[in-house]
């Protein structure tokens, strides 16, 4: 039979020919693809560095993800530990430092499929919260992997509300030790990565008690496993929390402590200390802790949220020009599914969003870096704004991108549902980003609290941070657009977004005020407004994202057609947002029904325009086939051959199931081999 | 250590005490829970039958799902085959027939986790499409499992567009055989259940050729594996398509045929026949095939779509009264998370939707049964309406419920993300319902085509089916509501939904007409309207769902408080739909901004009201703990204990990972056991 020989090695240098339907899409790009890649990377030099890193990682078989979709949780974990140990060696060999430009690309090239990320958080928390002496003791050991650290904050019964943590650390003056305990089952530490099977040490957050008085939550370094044989230390019960929707490679763990004693020196004591006589001393600002959370939220957006959406778009869009189904015109050949308006409407707004969020991520990093410089100069003024931004954008971007990945998955029909498409694992992983590092609804409410405060201040003529001065602006009540082309003007749609954000914030502030004035208690009034506060916070983030996209496009060079195509993507992102949240804009008549029809018309027109460049726009993300790890999304578009070849490697095809002998054979008609 | 002893056997008769926070929710139900259960079951007698079936199934260890979350694809498959063989035996023992009232409950009690569902489709297709002689030959063999059948329609390159199938069946007069071939890789059969490892036979859909002329797609019975040793027949290549997002227990397969010869008698020939001399004869109506698809779509809605949402609501709502987090009021204890407005806004509309869809499912079954009776009387008039309804509701309900399950999952935070919560597998399974048996967008476009046709007919004064006579109605241009209480009037909101559906259908019909009149070709014009056509079809289905919910509530007895609580759920479903699709209602000013504020106020008020009955409302679904298989959702609310106990059973805790010896031990500091 000739069929199975159609393709060659699909993971290696591989297939020779590009599917002609996909190839033809690349002939007509309206812009220079490598130029756009360089813009996305932040310069051609960084593209070069990235590609070097990718080559180094992908050419090493230890880092292969070829069998990932067939592996059990145990196998994934073992591979991730192996990779973590190997990558350290590799980086040393290459002379790449943890702080160097290569580091971020190493993690990306591994697609995050590596152990000991919490070991890094362990190190970071000691660096930030530990005294010089503590840093000097622990960091070198950790850097060399002479111990494996974890970070035990979340408990079975408490996630976001840290004050509620139940683990206790009681100071025993007589022995100069802290005695750590898990008083109830809900106090068990639950979820910390690297803790279920790997960690020898962890930073435990516990309520500090001295002489029976509680001083609140503090961090303590606790050894949990022997360094000699990896057995659990006395009084420690720990293990793996079992299967999850993704992250099979990570040993998220549980931990119970029963009268575990640690020396006084193991409380991280840069900002607070318990002296030998039990005196509690607090020094310096606690606000810097705040900043650590802010930094984590901002740092995860690119790799854990935006990149997965970019990958999903790449897979779904390439597949949608290879897949042909049904006919657009009777008598013609079957059409590429990307030529159907409904398919464009599913995928192209996600593509535009991936670009929009890439640019807002740059903006957040600038804001963060500026804030960091101020903090180094002991100026903490920007912290509330940074906190509000990191919270709101983490929530808004992760929610949007998660839904975007799901849309891409569904848009690939049955084949998208196969793990071999790569889309299910992108989805199940990005979904977690809506939950970890602050549940999204709670984060949006923190942003809303900041916005309400700023709105009140701005209304009273007091100064507010630059990003929210717009709240003070009085705006015209009507959108001036006269025909559908007017909605391709960034001023028109940016104003509309601004107007909507102000309206939602001001109307919710008014409702809150009314409730309080009518005698409802403040906390209860707040709770009664939270559904609308979440809407308001989202509208603010959406507005800033559109505004930033517009400003980014203005700054782009127009050579190579890049400014032009980015302008269209920006228009699409903005109009799709108005189209799909029409009620927000129609509510007070700022946009009329007739204008909404213009928005719809312009939005649908843009789909047809961007469709032409869809493949070059995902090619510009510059993912390798190994990085995508998708039978549907490879550069050559040999979709069906890859699905077939990869399926054959599945364990279900390597074992004759005992089910036949045990259950079927006794039943099946077996007098004749053939009926 | 005392902690691990807190609970007893959690899968068996189990825990003795109900969590007090959950228990207190059950004391204040405004209605009689068993009475509502009986309403949902369609009578107390059916509740009794259901419970007998559930008891029988759940007390048999073969059907246990206890280790499901820890099993590999191979293990799941083996268990599913074992269950399929055992359930047949069990039903014989109990005297339950396939057509009896118990049958549907058996499948539900197994949570669909059983093999050979496609074997049933194999049998159904022979019953419907086969001649009496074929039925007499094959059905007895299949009923006894003397062969295992599958149904091979979908190909690697073709799903929804059946005319595009590439497999060929060429009639060879000299031998009186059909020669089946897979001419290209994309022609490979791909996805059929039970085919990858189990089936001995399958119904293959292939293009029929006689004397070089193509007669279109026809069904053929093909043996693919030996009945003696289960080896593949000559010319057959088949296997498993590998890992998917769910359905690990099903051996979805691939199949290639190379000159496979089958006797002339193996073409299913009730409606078409090839005579010995090659003469092709068509007889009877093809429309009945149509009806089979309709019947499958309607039959899957209850078990595969609505039940998963009911389960997800049960899990998330029970968990949300056990989970306490943060404080609503300073100084008080931490609040149940269901007391936060944002949590109510996530979960309670899903609960209302589960009820709304349960009732629309009843409506669809009545419609279907009426249509079936007509068809038996050779009256095919209702087929277009039935097709439009089954397509549109399959799409709308599966989309809504999939998103509802995802909301429930996310609303449980980190613990929802654990497989042990039961929510991830509910989500990954229900997601497939958006794709299989017709991709949702394509189905909605079929409904839209029917609606446009009916709208045009109604506008011209021609008769249309009763369900769409509303399209002819001229409606007042404004919603008459004056305050928020008016929006609790079913007339007010039903009219609003009707108005919105008519507006979307008529405006899209007008756009289509305009495009065609301006010279755009008909197919191209259709494509340019598809985004809006999909909206229109959804609006129609949403309207019918609301209307049917209202009518159902009217017919309910008001004893035991049931009508009252159902009325409130109906209000919530309707107002949530207006609140979250505000643009649709504001667009032409039918509802004004001020009225939308009333909708919002009433909607938020309802959340607080229904919150009080939330737990009794999910208790009424009457799922057993074994059926839910969720550490978060059990009746007793012992959430944390179960998570802990179940996690310990994970394979990750049963094996000392080789990763330690291989990769960690060489690195770890091991001169001292303790640092």
TrEMBL record, chains A, B:
Question: Which is one GO molecular function term here?
Answer: 3alpha,7alpha,12alpha-trihydroxy-5beta-cholestanoyl-CoA 24-hydroxylase activity
UniProt-annotated catalytic positions = 437
InterPro entries membership: ACOX_C_alpha1, Acyl-CoA_ox_N, Acyl-CoA_Oxase/DH_mid-dom_sf, Acyl-CoA_oxidase, Acyl-CoA_oxidase_C, AcylCo_DH-like_C, AcylCoA_DH/ox_N_sf, AcylCoA_DH/oxidase_NM_dom_sf
Q: Where in the cell is it found?
A: Peroxisome
Entry-linked Pfam families: ACOX, ACOX_C_alpha1, Acyl-CoA_ox_N
Location of the Acyl-CoA oxidase C-alpha1 domain: 290-452
Alphabetized Gene3D superfamilies for the sequence: Acyl-CoA dehydrogenase/oxidase, N-terminal domain, Butyryl-CoA Dehydrogenase, subunit A, domain 2, Butyryl-CoA Dehydrogenase, subunit A, domain 3
Tell me the protein family, please. Answer: Belongs to the acyl-CoA oxidase family.
Q: What is this protein's name?
A: Acyl-coenzyme A oxidase
């Amino acid at each position: 039979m000739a069929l199975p020989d159609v393709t060659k090695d699909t993971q290696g240098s591989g297939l020779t020919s590009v599917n002609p339907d996909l190839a033809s899409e690349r002939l007509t790009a309206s812009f220079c693809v490598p130029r756009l890649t360089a813009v996305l990377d932040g310069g051609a030099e960084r593209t070069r560095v990235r590609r070097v890193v990718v080559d180094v990682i992908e050419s090493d078989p230890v880092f292969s993800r070829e069998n990932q979709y067939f592996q059990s949780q145990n196998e994934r974990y073992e591979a991730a530990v192996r990779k973590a140990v190997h990558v350290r060696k590799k980086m040393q060999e290459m002379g790449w430092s943890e702080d160097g430009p290569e580091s971020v690309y190493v993690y990306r090239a591994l697609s995050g499929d590596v152990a000991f990320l919490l070991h890094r958080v362990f190190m970071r928390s000691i660096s930030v919260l530990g005294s010089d002496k503590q840093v000097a003791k622990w960091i070198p050991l950790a850097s060399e992997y002479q111990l494996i650290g974890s970070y035990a904050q979340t408990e079975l019964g408490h996630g976001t509300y840290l004050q509620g943590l139940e683990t206790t650390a009681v100071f025993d003056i007589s022995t100069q030790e802290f005695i750590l305990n898990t008083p109830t089952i809900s106090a068990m530490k639950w979820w910390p990565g690297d803790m279920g099977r790997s960690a020898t040490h962890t930073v435990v957050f516990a309520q500090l008690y001295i002489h029976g008085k509680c001083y609140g939550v503090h961090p303590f370094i606790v050894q949990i496993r022997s360094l000699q044989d990896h057995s659990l230390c006395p009084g420690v019960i720990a293990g793996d929390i079992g299967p999850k929707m993704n992250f099979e490679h990570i040993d998220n763990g549980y931990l119970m402590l029963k009268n575990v004693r640690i020396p006084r020196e193991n409380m991280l004591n840069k900002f607070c200390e318990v002296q030998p006589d039990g005196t509690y001393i607090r020094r310096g600002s606690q606000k810097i802790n705040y900043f650590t959370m802010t930094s984590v939220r901002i740092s995860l957006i690119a790799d854990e949220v935006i990149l997965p959406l970019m990958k999903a778009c790449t897979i779904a869009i390439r597949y949608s020009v290879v897949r042909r189904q049904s006919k657009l015109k009777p008598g013609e050949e079957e059409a590429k599914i990307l030529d159907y308006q409904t398919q464009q409407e599913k995928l192209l707004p996600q593509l535009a969003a991936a670009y929009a969020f890439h640019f807002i991520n740059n903006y957040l990093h600038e804001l963060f870096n500026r804030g960091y410089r101020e903090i180094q100069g002991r100026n903490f003024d920007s912290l509330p704004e940074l906190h509000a931004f990191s919270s709101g954008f983490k929530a808004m971007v992760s929610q949007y991108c998660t839904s975007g990945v799901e849309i891409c998955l569904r848009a690939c029909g049955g084949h998208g549902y196969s793990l071999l498409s790569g889309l299910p694992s992108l989805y199940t992983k990005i979904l977690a980003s809506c939950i970890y590092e602050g549940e999204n609804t709670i984060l949006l409410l923190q942003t809303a609290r900041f916005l309400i405060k700023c709105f009140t201040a701005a209304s009273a003529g007091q100064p507010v941070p630059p990003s929210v001065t717009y709240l003070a602006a009085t705006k015209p009540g009507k959108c001036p657009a006269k025909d559908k082309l007017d909605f391709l003007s960034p001023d028109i749609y940016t104003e509309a977004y601004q107007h909507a954000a102000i309206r939602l914030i001001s109307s919710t502030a008014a409702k809150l005020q009314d409730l309080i004035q009518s005698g409802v208690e403040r906390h209860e009034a707040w709770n009664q407004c939270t559904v609308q506060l979440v809407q308001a916070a989202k509208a603010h983030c959406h507005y800033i994202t559109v505004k930033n996209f517009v400003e980014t496009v203005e700054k782009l060079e127009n050579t190579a057609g890049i400014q032009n195509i980015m302008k269209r993507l920006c228009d699409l992102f903005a109009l799709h947002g108005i189209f799909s949240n029409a009620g927000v804009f129609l509510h007070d008549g700022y946009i009329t029904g007739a204008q909404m029809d213009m928005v719809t018309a312009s939005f649908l027109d843009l789909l047809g325009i961007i469709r032409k460049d869809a493949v070059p726009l995902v090619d510009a993300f510059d993912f390798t086939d190994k990085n995508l790890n998708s039978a549907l999304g490879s550069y050559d578009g040999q979709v069906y051959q890859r699905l077939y070849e990869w399926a054959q490697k599945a364990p279900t095809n390597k074992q004759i199931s005992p089910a036949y002998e045990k259950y079927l054979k006794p039943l099946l008609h077996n007098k004749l081999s053939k009926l």
